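Moderator note: this is an archived Q&A kept for reference. The question asked for a predicted structure of one protein chain; the sequence and the answer are reproduced below.
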Amino acid sequence: MLPVLIFPQFDPVMVHFGPFGLRWYAMAYIVALVVGWRVARRLVALAPRAASALQVDDFLTWATLGVVLGGRLGYILFYQPGYYLSHPLAILEVWHGGMSFHGGAAGVIIALIIFTWRNQLSFLGFSDRITTVVPIGLGLGRVANFINGELWGREAPATLPWAMIFPDAGPVPRHPSELYEAVAEGLVLFTVMWLVSRSQKVREHPGFLAGLFLFGYAIARTVCELFREPDSFIGFLPFGVTMGQVLCVPMVIGGLGLMLNACLRPARTELMPPDAPGLEEDGDTAR
């Protein structure tokens, strides 16, 4: 029998500054937002142009608020509404963790709706470019989960070469499901989104990329949930499904609907007028 790996005791704080510290999870958010912002600036410039680089700069703040507020409120509403109803001050204790991707996604969608309306942009066209870079944050976030030793997997056979014992999950070997999700939701999904986004024919059908992201994430998350231990305060739902899988159902339906709608509608060779505000000051060009 192969020896079981022991989870390395990472310090959840990346850098200490006296009594303060920068956590790996926070750094994952920062790096994801910065890298995603730079990539999105290039994507919106591809034909048909969806926005100016300056508008992407402005949206960075909206996206940050959508992720943080939506992720926190989503966790509260989807996972522990009773606890936070009786402990309202705990809502502000974000340093204890508690973020939901599905809530963060809802927050970003609301931010996209308001931002594109205010800037007179194509909601679907702009959303296509933004959702293409979202897997960057998903992958980095799951790596941070692994470093924190949280959201571990279900019990695995000791013969599995990468089975691992987590310090707070008992003495049994488990799947490092955080890394499964980092690969599936991050690396694989981003690769697919990036390759498909290179096609101008696809970009001329607004909504297809956004639908592909919703559908792709839902499938990746649903499969990875088969190896992930459900939250102890929820456990398994009827028929052995998990809350994460249930929340993916509307994403599958919405994703398929967006892709079908995009394919049925005529191609659009322009998403914004050539004299739209901000383009004359836009320094980025598509390559």
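Archived answer notes: The chain has a mean pLDDT of 88.
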